[in-house]
């Protein structure tokens, strides 16, 4: 049953998922919500499972039905290691979901300082706006983030 594969991804059962992939499950399989196995693993912080999927050909740029990307989900969770893994496997640094929110904007908005630092160090664009025209700095300030506005100001030369 395909739902079981998503449970394996969510629970970090890399060995069980590997067996399902060996049986022919596509690494980019999606559930009814359009979430890929990689999206589920990334959102749950299951690095070994995400690495398995990426090594088996999962697309780090595959959005779900809502237009959300795995790297943005990992940024929302504040999981810098997962963000780095996804970027290292080809996720777009400034890739955005349907709402135009990049991983940087999302991390800034939710005050995920380690992720903001990583993304800025990798060259993420702090001036890129979302669908409403908000920059990461504007979004972070509007949300009342405590740490990320200063990081973005420094990146923008405003510190």
Automatic annotation (TrEMBL):
<feature type="repeat" description="ANK">
    <location>
        <begin position="99"/>
        <end position="131"/>
    </location>
</feature>
<keyword id="KW-0040">ANK repeat</keyword>
<keyword id="KW-0677">Repeat</keyword>
<dbReference type="Pfam" id="PF12796">
    <property type="entry name" value="Ank_2"/>
</dbReference>
<dbReference type="InterPro" id="IPR036770">
    <property type="entry name" value="Ankyrin_rpt-contain_sf"/>
</dbReference>
<feature type="repeat" description="ANK">
    <location>
        <begin position="33"/>
        <end position="65"/>
    </location>
</feature>
<protein>
    <submittedName>
        <fullName>Ankyrin repeat domain-containing protein</fullName>
    </submittedName>
</protein>
<dbReference type="InterPro" id="IPR002110">
    <property type="entry name" value="Ankyrin_rpt"/>
</dbReference>
<feature type="repeat" description="ANK">
    <location>
        <begin position="66"/>
        <end position="98"/>
    </location>
</feature>
């Amino acid at each position: 049953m395909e739902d079981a594969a998503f449970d394996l991804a969510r629970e970090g059962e890399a060995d069980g998922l590997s067996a399902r992939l060996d049986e022919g499950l596509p690494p980019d399989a999606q559930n009814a919500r359009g979430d890929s196995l990689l999206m589920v693993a990334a959102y749950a912080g299951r690095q070994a499972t995400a690495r398995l999927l990426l090594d088996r050909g999962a697309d780090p740029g595959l959005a779900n039905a809502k237009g959300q990307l795995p790297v943005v989900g990992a940024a929302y969770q504040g999981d810098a290691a997962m963000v780095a893994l996804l970027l290292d496997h080809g996720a777009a640094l400034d890739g955005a979901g349907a709402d135009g929110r990049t991983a940087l904007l999302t991390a800034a908005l939710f005050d995920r300082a380690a992720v903001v630092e990583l993304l800025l160090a990798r060259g993420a664009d702090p001036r890129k706006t979302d669908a409403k025209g908000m920059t990461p700095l504007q979004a972070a300030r509007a949300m009342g983030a405590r740490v990320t506005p200063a990081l973005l100001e420094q990146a923008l030369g405003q510190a």
